[in-house]
Design goal:
With about 160 residues, the chain is α/β, with parallel strands linked by helices. The protein is about 35% helix and about 25% strand. The protein has a 6-stranded mixed β-sheet. It has a two-stranded antiparallel ribbon with strand order 3-8. The longest helix is centred in the C-terminal third of the chain and has 15 residues. It starts with a strand and ends with a helix.
Length: about 160
């Protein structure tokens, strides 16, 4: 069974916010109960039923709704990858724009699931209300795991 790397930074930040008394309104707030039970998750994948793409290298994200033990693929969203390796990243200005565009495109998702992600993009996504989790393995299994982890964070 593949496991998700514990998003230590995300967990620490959420704990700090809770201790400071800061509130975070879940993106599902105000939705009917049938809709609020679902968690929307963006998955970085090249296909094959696997989570197998680093966030910075992703050219597309598969968007799922997960409710209980059911997963539903909603759509595939195309993006511009902002990095293809340590020496082949875009200029800082281009990289920021590409990141901002990607984060906006994922704005309705509560979770991002990818094979890896840097600390800076993970923090920036969390500030936008998206918990970025990293793991490798089967999409279906990791979708269900990530929902449980997300709910445990109390976001």
């Amino acid at each position: 069974m593949e496991t998700i790397d514990a998003a230590d930074e995300a967990s620490r930040q959420m704990a700090e916010k809770q201790q400071a008394g800061e509130e975070h309104t879940p993106k599902s707030a105000g939705l009917p109960a049938s809709e609020s039970a679902a968690v929307r998750i963006a998955v970085a994948t090249r296909g094959g039923g696997k989570v197998n793409v680093h966030f910075g290298h992703a050219n597309e994200f598969w968007i799922y709704d997960v409710s209980g033990q059911k997963t539903k693929l909603l759509e595939v969203r195309k993006v511009e990858a902002y990095c293809s390796g340590r020496t082949e990243c875009s200029s800082p200005d281009d990289k920021k724009k590409i990141f901002d565009d990607t984060a906006a495109m994922l704005g309705d998702c509560q979770v991002l699931l990818c094979s890896g992600i840097g600390d800076s993009p993970r923090r920036k996504l969390l500030q936008k209300g998206i918990a970025a989790l990293s793991g490798k393995g089967g999409i279906e299994e990791l979708l269900l795991e990530s929902v449980e982890f997300y709910k445990d964070l109390g976001i």
